[in-house]
From TrEMBL:
The keyword Magnesium does not apply. GO terms for molecular function: endonuclease activity. The chain holds residues 8 to 340 of 642 of the full protein. This is DNA mismatch repair protein MutL. It comes from Lachnospira intestinalis. Keywords: DNA damage, DNA repair, Endonuclease, Hydrolase, Nuclease.
Amino acid sequence: QSTINKIAAGEVIERPSSVVKELVENAIDAGATAITIEIKEGGISFIRITDNGSGIAPEEIKLAFLRHSTSKIKSIEDLMNVSSLGFRGEALSSIAAVSQIELVTKTADSFTGIRYVIEGGKEVSFEEVGAPDGTTFMIRNLFFNTPVRRKFLKTAATEAGYINALLEHLSLSHPDISFRFISNNQNRLHTSGNMNLKDIIYSVYGRDITKNLIELDVSTQDMHITGFIGKPAICRGNRGFENYYINGRYIKSHIITRAIEEAYRGFIMPHNYPFTALHFQINPSILDVNVHPTKMELRFSKNEFVYQFVLDAITDALNRRELIPEVKPSDTV
Ligand code: ADP
Ligand code: MG
């Protein structure tokens, strides 16, 4: 069992940022409105994730660390819905197999919390402790028992950078949740949970980007797009600023990426890419999710329709901005 878990862990948990992704998604699933992420040395030696969500009931704790034990998926339809972030029931067992975990959790209706320690998949202790409602996971020494995997990690600074990028996406995709990210005791990102998308863009990207945005809010049958796209002037030499979220998740779709880039084609130089921060709400009935342990690829039952709608929506927004001259007071009659 422990070997199987270690192998499975390799598919789900590649690096510290995968641990953070899985644990933060669990916190979101648990209804948390505030999530704090602290790391040391790029998360290799230490990760702490604290949430104010539902907590885990005492009798559920050990079960949660068993492979394929998920409280979320009830049917293949649930999977297609992409409504819940968790869908595998493998994260906790995988993380536990390759690290030292200390968990403190308390539900609102228990009197005390539980502290559970599990190292390399082996239970170390399970005891009652005083704790606030919610859950704290501490992950120490990732891959301590799989030295080869540990060797594949990049420098602490690079690993911290991956986590930072992930948390930027999570903040942009969930303006209603407060995220705080602390790396080596330094505050790196903080959102308050009651910000609008533009405020979050400001905290992540700063003033120059925020000053140069065009707002988008368009819908059609089965699809609603809201958010912001950058004016052509703030394009970049890489795709790193093409942010979009589908039904609340950071998922890539070739169709959507192509439509966005095609819309900008006449507005920016070749090999430049736009800034976007868009939220797509898409009716799950036209979505098809191909699930692989780490990658999710999205397909649509109406590819042409999705492509054309996104292309038109962005082209219109860009034209509106480029062609209509700013109205000066003296122009008004
Ligand atoms: P999945 O998220 O796919 O269900 P995981 O292995 O990530 O699988 O988590 C297993 C279970 O542990 C979850 O289904 C949930 O019941 C519980 N759990 C994990 N993290 C939390 C958390 N932060 N708050 C409440 N429950 C949690
Ligand atoms: Mg999960």
